[in-house]
User: Fold these one by one.
Assistant:
Number 1:
Amino acid sequence: MLDPPAKLFSSADHETHFNPSKYLEKYYSLVRPDEFEKETIPFQLKTFYHLFHEILKQKLSAESRLLEIGAGPSINLCLFAAGVFREIYLSDYLLGNRNELMKWLNYEPDAFDWKPYINYIREKNIPIDDNILEQVHEKVKDVLECDVRTEQVLAQPIGQMDAVACMACLEAACETYSDYQDASKRVINLVKPTGYYIQSGYLNQSYYDAGAYYFRTLSTTRQQVVDTLDINGIDVQGWFDFEVPYCGATRTTTSPGTLFYICYGVKREE
Ligand SMILES: C[S@@+](CC[C@H](N)C(=O)[O-])C[C@H]1O[C@@H](n2cnc3c(N)ncnc32)[C@H](O)[C@@H]1O
């Protein structure tokens, strides 16, 4: 069993210790994939393709708008959502992450280069348009400030959306299950009745590697996640999960039995 890292930062420490460049390098540069990246990332990418292009595209109108809460410095989800939604709004709690996204959207020379990641998606035989980066530039309409611990979540409210996604964010932002339930409720409030909610995260995980530092995460079970979605008005329609390989080379998993999941559901009418 791997010892936990000597220093674990709390969710509040994201503000001082989350490094957007190191995070992008760790999860999206794929220069030297470790065991985690070799299997978990292809699972994630294949599931995103299936969910957005083979499921949601058939269910949503071409006019639909997507909001992503806690996107970090990453356009990963947009690479699959751009072909489905008319407009995408990204948000994150940290100014550093929002600045990193703006740098990319503004074509600044030191912005993160997503081309190797796109080549990697192609190598895994996952369909992706040749002009996907231009599509993402066109579809992302704004990068907003958010905090799932506040009532409105978004610093500048934009109303309810056809779909909201919240990927690997709630466990990082919440320290107790009660906080998690409350944050989930606020995020789901941003989905229109009969709209779609998409969520991913890690089950049975108590910290994550953000590239530069390790942050504590709230360890949840599948039952807790499903119960929270149900209490907050979501009928889960699809659940995809994958046991993250446990190996000494990576400190991404706390212990054997960590599952990465992606799920989606429909918001019930009030
Ligand atoms: C593990 S990262 C996930 C980033 C991105 N969704 C991805 O999948 O790569 C966790 C994210 O949660 C964000 N976060 C932390 N506290 C938050 C809060 N109170 N409200 C909203 N987001 C928060 C962090 O800034 C960070 O971008």
Number 2:
Amino acid sequence: MALSRWVIPFVLAGSAWSGAAAAAAPLVRPNVLAEFPHDANAFTQGLLHHGGTLYESTGLRGRSSLRRVELATGTVLLDIDLGTSEFGEGLARVDDRLIQLTWQEHVAHVYDLETFEPVTDFAYDTEGWGLCFDGHQLVMTDGSDQLFFRDPDSFEVLRSVSVVDDGVPLEDLNELECVHGLVLANVWKTDTIAVIDPKTGQVLERVDASGLLSQDEQASADVLNGIAHDASTGHLYLTGKLWPKLFEVELELPVTAPATPRKGGSCAMCAMGQGPNDGLVGWLIVLTSIVWRRVSPAGARSRAR
Ligand SMILES: [Ca+2]
């Protein structure tokens, strides 16, 4: 048994990382460190952490907003409404700007980070679901299996990649978080977060985040849909649509090459002093796969988007 805890992660993580063989991504569980209040009326569609504070995009027509939220209390410190015709979606920070997607309105709003004053808008053809910034490029989802990589200044599509797990395209990719050269994506209608190598689209790991809410809390809540990375601790914050709580968790992630930050950008991986040495990456994957727990598949829960 002890041997399998070391060998199985090596085989699975190694093959998934290389893309050389189709294999189901390992399934891991987050370790919950703390929980905080979250506005149970917030239909969370985008979440990020910056400077000790959370920024959140909420959806539903007539209830869509952009918010700055105090982590410890869940208090909304600053917010603006999108109006009744727009449905807020993914949210990313690029330097001193916030970029907020809309679901079917084909427009992304750009705001000043501090004041939420509008800066400009970007137009796009697809639906807007999730958004994150890796320090160099924006990564966007549209509900399909595609990750779209966009220029953060022009919003031009630079490339796209299909996300694949066990040889099968993984659709319904939703809220995103760029973490250490990886892309974490909520899979809509599930409690699963896919950990994706953005270079290949390969799912390296699946995170089973089921069971964070009690049955009573879940009864009035919708699906998991919020991932924010705290670069100062390496922890993640997880919440969901209409969830009464937000959870601080730690998670063992595969290691991959960092994105190259543009001038003035941020790159958490670079801060950790890790470089794009692919030969080293495979062995680092072994080390980061030591914590390995098999769990049951995430239960699927569905409700109107
Ligand atoms: Ca996010």
Number 3:
Amino acid sequence: MNLAGGKGGVGTSTITANMAYALGQAGAGFGNIGVLDLAYGANSTLSKLLGVPPLRSNGFWNYITAKYYPYQDSSPDITPALTQQIALIPSGTIEAHRIDWALSYILSKMNNDPDKVGWALYNDLAELIINKLARYMPSLVLIDVPSTIFKPLAWAVLMMARVVNVIVKAGSTHQDEAMEVLELVSAVINQRAQMGVPTPDVFLIVNQALPGDNTANELKSRGAPMRGTYVLPYSPAVHYITDYMKDLAIKYDVPQDKFFRQWRETILAIARNEYEVARQAPKVARIPFKRP
Ligand SMILES: Nc1ncnc2c1ncn2[C@@H]1O[C@H](COP(=O)(O)OP(=O)(O)OP(=O)(O)O)[C@@H](O)[C@H]1O
Ligand SMILES: [Mg+2]
């Protein structure tokens, strides 16, 4: 899972989309890759970069609202979008404000018990992956967890992830927010350990770093739990290709941007290393699908 540490725009979706492409392009040798976009409404950069315009195709939030929320289409057809060897479940056609209404409705239906909602969403995520993605036999499923996420949903993903990437924006202004997210990650890891469930490996990805950036060391000295750290430089070409061309930067080579090659190589390293880490991690599938 790629989890945003801090406020929006740290680059989670850009990283997830490019990782998916690095692993899922025909001939890469990693088999099929599943991708799940948990973004809210129109803010679905990941789906967009993988070729599905926001709010056009049914996806995750259609599945959730159909299940619990009587004001929404009750039997949406959720068919993953396929490009190369990537099977994507986009965020869906539900606008952000409707998602908010639906979530408060779901919460009230579950006696305002956030634990109950968390476990329900855990089951829903597992169901969605099994019913909609498993048929493509993905060797890996990447989940993009944006900063705006409903926290019981972030918890549900943290309960099942084998590899957690906490993505933070370089610079001291974002460190406190990053620590907040890292504390949530530690809390869920402890909970998993207490339940006897294998714990995930946590990596820190510092994104949009300028030369000499020290964010990774500073977070480490503040006690951030992590198995490894990656630093992605700020690259004007990445920005341009993502925002103006609405495309995957990894497809390109931009020699005139001296940070681009470093960005590209780091994305490839993250994708390949973490594929191995995820493959070797013990299975998590034994978590009871019910609140204990
Ligand atoms: N390494 C980078 N260099 C330059 N620009 C970058 C880099 N990574 C991301 N960006 C830019 O940062 C912006 C935000 O990226 P993105 O949408 O991936 O963030 P996000 O964390 O998914 O945001 P949200 O929390 O809103 O979902 C985009 O304009 C993207 O082009
Ligand atoms: Mg995003």
